[in-house]
Amino acid sequence: MIKAGIVGATGYAGIELVRLLSQHPSVTLTHLGSQTYDQKPYIDTVSSFRGKLDDYVCRNAPVEELADSCDVLFLALPHGIASRQINEKVLEKTCIIDLGADFRLKDVKIYEKWYGIPHSSPHLLPRAVYGLSEFERSSVSKTNLIANPGCYTTCSILTLAPLIRTGFLSGFTDSGGYPPILIDAKSGVSGAGRKAGTASHYCETNESIKAYKIASHRHTPEIEQYLEMNSDEPVRVQFTPHLVPMNRGILCTAYIPLGHTGKKTTSLDELRGLYLETYDNEFFVRILPEGIFPETRWVKGSNYIDIGIFFDERTNTIIAVGAIDNLVKGAAGQAIQNMNIRFGFEENEGLRSLPCFP
Amino acid sequence: MIKAGIVGATGYAGIELVRLLSQHPSVTLTHLGSQTYDQKPYIDTVSSFRGKLDDYVCRNAPVEELADSCDVLFLALPHGIASRQINEKVLEKTCIIDLGADFRLKDVKIYEKWYGIPHSSPHLLPRAVYGLSEFERSSVSKTNLIANPGCYTTCSILTLAPLIRTGFLSGFTDSGGYPPILIDAKSGVSGAGRKAGTASHYCETNESIKAYKIASHRHTPEIEQYLEMNSDEPVRVQFTPHLVPMNRGILCTAYIPLGHTGKKTTSLDELRGLYLETYDNEFFVRILPEGIFPETRWVKGSNYIDIGIFFDERTNTIIAVGAIDNLVKGAAGQAIQNMNIRFGFEENEGLRSLPCFP
Amino acid sequence: MIKAGIVGATGYAGIELVRLLSQHPSVTLTHLGSQTYDQKPYIDTVSSFRGKLDDYVCRNAPVEELADSCDVLFLALPHGIASRQINEKVLEKTCIIDLGADFRLKDVKIYEKWYGIPHSSPHLLPRAVYGLSEFERSSVSKTNLIANPGCYTTCSILTLAPLIRTGFLSGFTDSGGYPPILIDAKSGVSGAGRKAGTASHYCETNESIKAYKIASHRHTPEIEQYLEMNSDEPVRVQFTPHLVPMNRGILCTAYIPLGHTGKKTTSLDELRGLYLETYDNEFFVRILPEGIFPETRWVKGSNYIDIGIFFDERTNTIIAVGAIDNLVKGAAGQAIQNMNIRFGFEENEGLRSLPCFP
Amino acid sequence: MIKAGIVGATGYAGIELVRLLSQHPSVTLTHLGSQTYDQKPYIDTVSSFRGKLDDYVCRNAPVEELADSCDVLFLALPHGIASRQINEKVLEKTCIIDLGADFRLKDVKIYEKWYGIPHSSPHLLPRAVYGLSEFERSSVSKTNLIANPGCYTTCSILTLAPLIRTGFLSGFTDSGGYPPILIDAKSGVSGAGRKAGTASHYCETNESIKAYKIASHRHTPEIEQYLEMNSDEPVRVQFTPHLVPMNRGILCTAYIPLGHTGKKTTSLDELRGLYLETYDNEFFVRILPEGIFPETRWVKGSNYIDIGIFFDERTNTIIAVGAIDNLVKGAAGQAIQNMNIRFGFEENEGLRSLPCFP
Q1: Which are the contacts of D307, defined by CB distance < 8 A and separation ≥ 6?
Q2: What is the pLDDT of residue C175?
Q3: Could A299 and B48 be called an inter-chain contact, meaning their C-beta atoms sit closer than 8 Å?
Q4: What are the sequence ranges of the domains in chain A?
Q5: Is the per-residue pLDDT at A67 higher than 60?
Q6: Domains C2-127 and C152-326 share a fold
Q7: Predicted pLDDT at C115
Q8: Are A357 and B301 an interchain contact pair (Cβ–Cβ within 8 Å)?
Q9: H/E segment holding residue C111
Q10: How far apart are CA A98 and CA A6, in angstroms?
Q11: Predicted confidence band at B171 (pLDDT cuts at 50, 70, 90)?
Q12: Which of D 200-229 lie inside 8 A of B, CB atoms?
């Protein structure tokens, strides 16, 4: 039994952490942190947990204090805060699983360029492990600083990884570089957080779809960094997020046009082989049968990622589609998966509940 | 470990039964019945269970055959079918939990009036136990024929029961009878079933609300029967269902105007006393604190019912509001609660998962 | 051609006023007022009007200044502001159509009790005309201070008026008073305004329904005042609003239980007679055929109110259901209808566009 | 005043035609055709038009008969039917505006390959004019057979046209051909029609997003044919539609990666120049200011297309985004625009009503 604290427990990722951790057999929740609801009963703002978490009162405590009493601390905070609160002392005492952006990018310059603020603890970046569970188990199991990947990032990378990690895409263009990689992503509104604003007002998002942060979304460098680390060539990704009128879910439709010349091509069989091999025996990754493609409703409430792969011979283009629940596999679920790896629990402990449809 | 079969496993109540039972520690799912998807893999129509239920193939088997191999059989069928398939032989071999309407009403004439068809096995009606779990534990534990209450019914009765079972409402009017009881109910679309039709088409229900089956909804006599059984006076209920553009959830707003004369009245304290006492220690019933009222989002995916009670002194009217997830407490969840009671498992076994918000 | 200004043009009622007035053949829009967007192009916040209103810049001007340049001024403001800005001088120069609450209640004590603030210009209350267009044409046509009814109010009163104005309900109870009148109302989210807040956040309202402001909604005294003015007895109304996950629309389900004694009763024919007679030749009121009841989708975008009436013999209860678009008949549309009456235009000028479905 | 008939008047495109045409000053609606609702009052299935169209009864009449009494006939039918019903005689008597697919593709082999059925009147294909209003005014004005473009097609082509028609894209690749053109499209559910089916059931589409008909959607050859007709090179398009839980709206996000080599590139200024020039003075095309991108809510209910253009220097990729209301500009609106052109009315007659938000 380990003691877990959550800083930022009243946002959507925080609430999902509470839901999952309070049902995890090896975890005791010892701290529910909130600035906004400091000193108020937790169920005042999350009435769903009434009857189970009635005794919890939100507190606004600094990470350094919490490090003493928690074996693991989940941080679900806006970027820029975690890197101010974490230091060596904290990391000696507790394991940090940061659901924010501060420790995801290895290159502090890239962080500062995309986030527009200075990084408060660049010296800790080398200690941070990028917690993409399926591929980083070994490193995750040994660190006290886990940078939990972003929601779009998780979906995008897992959807594309078999093409990159296997070296498959290398040398596809005449000039030797990668072909273009385009990711058209769609997310439910919970991805934007619980903070109120005109953009998240019901009537401003309902019955509409839009692209946003075109060419400038901060998950772009995160995707590129990880793909590039697993490739022998530079990787550039065109990433476009869209806002969809639904609570949960991310769908990433990725395109890799192999070029009109047709010199280099592939086949659906070859592609399916790469995916099935890469994700063989992965509990949370479901490679869909030929002809079936992901829909976010089928993963809602679960830690699964569903992936469908296709090759369009007519246009010589690879199309890969992935779907996750942004709050589970894209945030709280993967964070707990990392905790399980780090603390030696079964990797899917507390994460086996099936998707909830409809 | 008991063997459970589901007849009608591809409808929404059936899918929810599968989701909950496949995660129940004392149950093995041995049969997923479907007419429409006979001989097809179950995951073909419910892709969410991929990875877990890949080996299940839908079958269209008669109840009599299934009775041999199942300890418990859940029937999630349109009315009129269950009463044709169930007989004494079946009931000797297995426990039937019928989520349909055929065995809910004790008076076959009322059944035939509201449902418009003859009842195929009226002789079995006396054996059927109305499975309103919180109040019928003793009978449920001893029967092989459990009539699982309707979704609106469950929400309505539980929301009103403390006023009736305690005798509180008796004699409130000058003429000795009950004051009017009005239930204005609102349901998500899954309550209408998975069958396709213009009425359930996305664009015909989205962005709209309507009342339907005014004064003629079939859950009306069910509510009246149960309230009357627990009262010393005849009970008439004005029940009006509404269709709300959301997947899950039922909200019942009940009104009991005590009359302008003001001779008979009550107080919020007295009412809260009745509710807290009636539901003391009930795991699945959450009486909300003063001033807080139910919202369906707080019970989504769970077996809870949330109840709020109010007394309007200005109008001398009692207002009680209840919220459930129609597919859980209103169908599959309560059915499993009844199974737990019947087979001696912990009553909340397999039903403890928290609501999923947002 | 008259000159119209709108104060509060960037809220939902304001936007709807702009949409309708900019297409009205006898109106020139001369002022789009906004505090939040002062000095910014109007289309910055309402991109839908691009190409048509590109030259309009929001301004935050006081009503007194605007009175000089506008023949009619629509105020779409939170309560408490209009009554501070309007005075005799203003009313000499321009016609005020106030979509807010300040001039709706005749009794300043009732205003102050329900709104919790002092009224800034009680001396103007006698001059204000309650602009329920269908019944107040004569007064509306002669005043410079029109208090436009609230959204719930409009729907509730028009749905019930034929029972009251005809004297039909009088003396139905033994004690001589009215039977109970209960209104269970359901509204889309735009009714709560465009101001951002947790309560209007997409994920907090989507996929859920709730009752709110039980027994305390401020439209209650407004409904009572109007019904009472048109009755020979005191009227008390039980009014309960609910929030529905959709952009637009209000549905009011009204119940009048006539009592179990059965001494006094009625029939559907009699009721339909009252409704057809009351609304004979009303362009915007559609009394639905027997057996058909309103759905908000059928009035969306239009100034119609659809009304269905039913009598439940089993329970001796009258049920009346009304549906409007809260932003049109419940706000901007009725305001323009009043303007048309006041300025002698055809009453449905600029308001004839058909509902938009789906 | 011309006489207009609609065949298929009870589907969503048909209903939108009725809404718009019944408010068109130069049109009399003389026929509302329906197979399903033959002999039933039109308002039975479209209650929104009550009070306006009460006298209309649906009829299931053959096109040949209708040709005698209608100046213009709108066909909103599933593919394969129009080409069976239209012949030379019909085209001598009336102007056909076909909202279906039968006369859009010039090459009968491509039609038969993508639609999987033989074409019933290939000899009429040369007479058909592809009614993309903004670019085909001259041909549209002279024909009696207008093939109204598909919804996705209209949005896709108008979003990309300035890059093609100007010759801009020609020769961008080393091999001389076009760079890849990828269109990731998202549509509301009304695009799938009013026919009931599991796929359009509320609970199967709500709270989910999916890609569908990957690499096989029938609007693909339509887009390619038109772009190719306006280009000096073969054009291949990767087109992927997605289903979004909303009633109306299409958003097309188009990507043109210009290659990593960076030999050939462009700038936002150059691109904006192409768009502004191409659509100069077009009433229905709104090129959004720099940094602003389309959202479907801003065009809902109107005949506008909003277009945003961007150039990502980092990836050397052009991104163009377009948004329409699929039932207006993508169907009924453009059909009426074509009618206006054909009959010499003002092109935006009956189409000037502003978008309805929220």
Answers
A1: D158, D159, D275, D279, D285, D286, D287, D288, D294, D320, D321, D322, D323
A2: 66
A3: yes
A4: 2-127, 152-326
A5: yes
A6: no
A7: 97
A8: no
A9: helix C108-115
A10: 10
A11: confident
A12: 200-207
Q: For D152-326, give the CATH class.
A: alpha beta
In this structure, the dihedral spanned by the alpha carbons of residues B315, B320, B323 and B329, taken in order and rounded to 10 degrees, is -150
Cα–chain center distance at B317: 26
Name which CATH class applies to A2-127: alpha beta
Task: Tell me which residue has tokens 């309505």.
Answer: B156
Asked if residue C319 lies in contact with residue C255, where contact means CB atoms within 8 angstroms, the answer is yes
Catalytic residues of D: 151
Among residues C246, C250, C194, C241, the alpha carbon closest in space to that of C220 is found at C241
Distance CA C159, CA C278 (A): 11
User: Mean of the pLDDT values across residues B28-33?
Assistant: 98
Q: Report the distance separating Cα D69 and Cα D64, nearest Å.
A: 10
**A355 interfacial to chain B (CB closer than 8 Å):** yes
Q: What is the pLDDT of residue D318?
A: 98
- Interval B10-28 mean pLDDT: 98
Global pTM? 0.98
CA distances from D313 to A215, B162, B231, C217, D316 (A): 9, 68, 76, 55, 5
Residue A347 has pLDDT above 80, yes or no: yes
C-alpha to C-alpha distance for C124 and C126, rounded to whole angstroms: 6
Which residue reads 């096109």 in tokens? D63
Q: Does domain B152-325 have CATH number 3.40.50.300?
A: no
The two counts, helices (H) then strands (E), for chain A are 11, 13
Q: Which helix (H) or strand (E) holds A3?
A: strand A2-7
Q: Could you tell me which chain A residue has the CA closest to the CA of B293?
A: A47
Question: pLDDT tens digits, residue range D156-206?
Answer: 999 999 999 999 998 777 666 788 999 999 999 999 999 999 999 999 999
- C12: contact with A, CB 8 A cutoff: yes
Rounded distance between C-alpha atoms, residue D290 and residue C258, angstroms: 64
End-to-end Cα, chain B, rounded Å: 34
Give residue C333's Cα distance to chain centre: 9
- Is it true that the peptide bond before D358 is cis, omega within 30 degrees of 0? yes
Phi, psi of B306 (to 5 degrees): -100, 135
Neighbouring C-alpha atoms within 13 Å toward the C-beta of C250: 32
Instruction: Give start and end residues of each alpha helix (H) in A44-195.
Output: 63-69, 82-85, 88-93, 108-115, 137-140, 151-165
CA B78 to each of CA B35, B155, B239, B267, C300: distance values in angstroms, whole numbers, following the listed order: 12, 20, 21, 43, 34
C164 pLDDT above the threshold of 80: yes
Going A104 to A106 to A110 to A112, the CA torsion angle's sign is positive
Amino acid found at C317: T
How many CA within 13 A on the CB side of residue B22?
24
A232 confidence band (pLDDT: 50, 70, 90): confident
Interfacial D residues in 112-171 facing A (CB < 8 Å) = none
Question: Which percentage of chain C shows pLDDT scores above 70?
Answer: 98
Nearest chain C residue to D298, by CA: C48
Q: At what angle do helices C108-115 and C219-229 cross, to 10 degrees?
A: 160
Residues B19 and A356 sit within 8 Å (Cβ to Cβ): yes
Neighbours of C176 (CB within 10 A): 10
What tokens were used for D347? 């092109």
CA-CA distance, A80 to B154, in Å (whole number)? 49
Query: Residue B20, exposed/middle/buried by CB under 10 A (0-12, 13-18, 19+)?
Result: buried
Residue D349 in tokens: 């007659």
Measure the CA dihedral D202/D204/D209/D211, to 10°: -120
- Complex confidence, ipTM: 0.97
How large is the average pLDDT for residues A275-284? 98
